[in-house]
Specification:
Number of helices of chain A: 5
Number of strands of chain A: 0
Radius of gyration of chain B: 24 Å
Structural class of chain B: mainly alpha
Helix content of chain B: over 70%
Number of domains of chain A: 2
Largest interface: A-B, 47 and 57 residues
Oligomer: heterodimer
Helix content of chain A: 55-70%
Function (chain B): Part of the endoplasmic reticulum membrane protein complex (EMC) that enables the energy-independent insertion into endoplasmic reticulum membranes of newly synthesized membrane proteins.
Strand content of chain B: under 5%
Largest sheet of chain B: none
Protein name (chain B): ER membrane protein complex subunit 2
Main location (chain B): endoplasmic reticulum
Order of helices and strands of chain A: HHHHH
Radius of gyration of chain A: 31 Å
Membrane topology (chain B): Peripheral membrane protein
Family (chain B): Belongs to the EMC2 family.
Number of domains of chain B: 3
Distance between the termini of chain A: 40 Å
Shape of chain A: rod-shaped
Chain lengths: ~140, ~325
């Protein structure tokens, strides 16, 4: 979906640039006319911006907004069970930011340490298991608790 | 995807641990070897971040596990240089390194004596107390470990990690009632922990199906009813929770099989099972959900890649077993 949002944003940017350019041209024209009108002393027309330029500016801003909003990721869930389910179902992939990196504050299931218990780690058992795993050719035996 | 160094590494697979410990030279190279604690030098040198020390701790654990003692010692040196020799956490890591370096039980006894020495100076040193308990358990003195843990919990009753360890110790000894009590304490401290709800359900299921428990008796039905409720609660707390649905399916199948044999039930206590129609529907729901999860996970669909492969395999086996036994259950 990103290319759609990017196209829309770029299109909105072009519109906005066009509106700015039109406004600039309009004011240049107005000042030229004002300089000549002092000679001819015609009616002092107000240098108001034509309404089509104003509309174009507003539309361009809305289009840019639309493009940016379409390009953002989904908001994070605020319901506990949805959030927890997302962690279980998607793992790290569900918590990447716009650059495609995993969020820094992502910790997975925060209650996992109640089952892994790093404070009570049995390092000798872990070393034995790792040595066994290496001996088995480094493939089977993923049973690490 | 490479595992992050910011998370505790104890649940990682050996391959992931190896991958982490192979990052050790790069991490040690890229970060400064000493960070001074004085505020004056902090003005001039690069600022330290809390993540750096988390990284060192996790790197230390991974390197110890994969047998890379040199890098582990380097990590420890840096932690000591920053936090000092008498920091309780650092003391625990030092003890951990000594345990890993010990070649025989005699040296481990020396480490144990050292822990006792530290605790006689300051018996509120909780990291060292935990190390001592873990070492006792590792040496096979499980009942000593349990009694020390009970003393620790007398003194610090809000330590959920310690309650959880106590539950596992009791479980290895076959003391189901005590294990369930300890795990319920964990739930008092962390009522939203969906994995602990599932774990408690598993323990109650184990208690119900243990060889000595006997079928049809009061505690048997009570355990099954409670296990059913625990698994249901874990699913309530976490959508699409594979472990919760697995347990739910296991328990409901068991209950349905039992009630097919003997229809009598309904002692009017608070742990009575729901009526058979509800259990039947729960069983169908769990089967449907499990097969959905297994199907998506097997196809590696985007948004379904977080499940552990072993768990998915187990769920598939359960479904297959159930499918082959289906005619008897449905009648």
């Amino acid at each position: 979906m990103t290319w759609i949002s990017k196209t829309i944003t770029v299109f909105g940017g072009l519109l906005l640039a066009h509106a700015c350019y039109s406004a600039q041209e309009h004011s240049a024209l107005q000042s030229l006319r004002a300089a000549t009108s002092t000679l001819t002393s015609s009616s002092p027309t107000a240098a108001a911006l034509p309404v089509d330029i104003a509309i174009e500016t507003v539309v361009a801003t809305l289009v840019i907004l639309l493009g940016l909003v379409l390009g953002t990721r989904l908001l994070r869930p605020i319901q506990w069970r949805v959030w927890a389910g997302k962690i279980e179902r998607e793992g790290e992939e569900g918590f990447v930011d716009n650059e495609g990196e995993v969020n820094k504050d992502y910790v997975g299931n925060p209650y996992r340490i109640l089952e892994t218990r790093p404070g009570f780690v049995d390092i000798r058992k872990q070393r034995r298991e790792f040595a066994q795993w290496v001996k088995n050719g480094g493939s089977g035996g993923a049973g690490a608790q | 995807m490479a595992p992050s160094l910011l998370h505790p590494p104890s649940q990682l697979s050996p391959a992931a641990a190896l991958q982490l410990s192979q990052q050790a030279p790069a991490v040690l190279q890229s970060s400064p070897s000493t960070v001074s604690a004085s505020p004056l030098s902090a003005l001039f040198s690069a600022s330290e971040s809390p993540e750096l020390w988390t990284k060192y701790e996790n790197l230390l654990l991974s390197c110890l596990r994969t047998g890379d003692e040199r890098a582990a010692h380097q990590c420890l040196e840096r932690l000591v240089a920053r936090f000092g020799d008498d920091n309780e956490r650092v003391m625990a890591f030092k003890g951990l390194l000594k345990e890993a370096d010990a070649a025989n039980n005699g040296q481990l006894e020396l480490v144990l004596k050292e822990y006792d020495q530290i605790l006689s100076d300051n018996d509120t040193n909780i990291p060292i107390t935990k190390r001592r308990i873990a070492l006792l358990r590792s040496l096979g003195r499980v009942s000593d470990a349990a009694s020390s843990l009970v003393r620790l919990l007398d003194f610090s009753p809000t330590d959920a990690e310690a309650w959880s360890e106590l539950a596992e110790i009791y479980l290895t000894q076959g003391l189901y009632a005590q294990a369930i009590y300890a795990l319920e304490e964990v739930l008092v401290l962390a009522p939203n922990a969906w994995n602990i709800h599932a774990r408690l359900g598993e323990m109650q299921y184990m208690a119900a199906t243990a060889p000595g428990a006997g079928t049809g008796a009061g505690p048997y039905r009570k355990y099954l009813a409670e296990a059913l409720k625990r698994f249901a609660r874990s699913i309530e707390l976490c959508d699409d929770y594979l472990r919760g649905y697995y347990g739910l399916k296991l328990v409901t199948s068991k209950v349905l099989k039992d009630s097919a044999g003997s229809a009598k039930q309904n002692e009017a206590d608070e742990f009575s099972l729901p009526d058979p129609a509800t259990i039947e529907r729960l069983n169908e729901l769990a089967t449907a959900k499990l097969s959905e999860i297994v199907r998506h996970a097997a196809a590696r669909d985007p948004g379904w890649r977080g499940y552990d492969e072993l768990e998915v395999t187990a769920a598939r086996e359960l479904l297959n077993k159930d499918a082959s036994a289906l005619p008897e259950v449905v009648r």
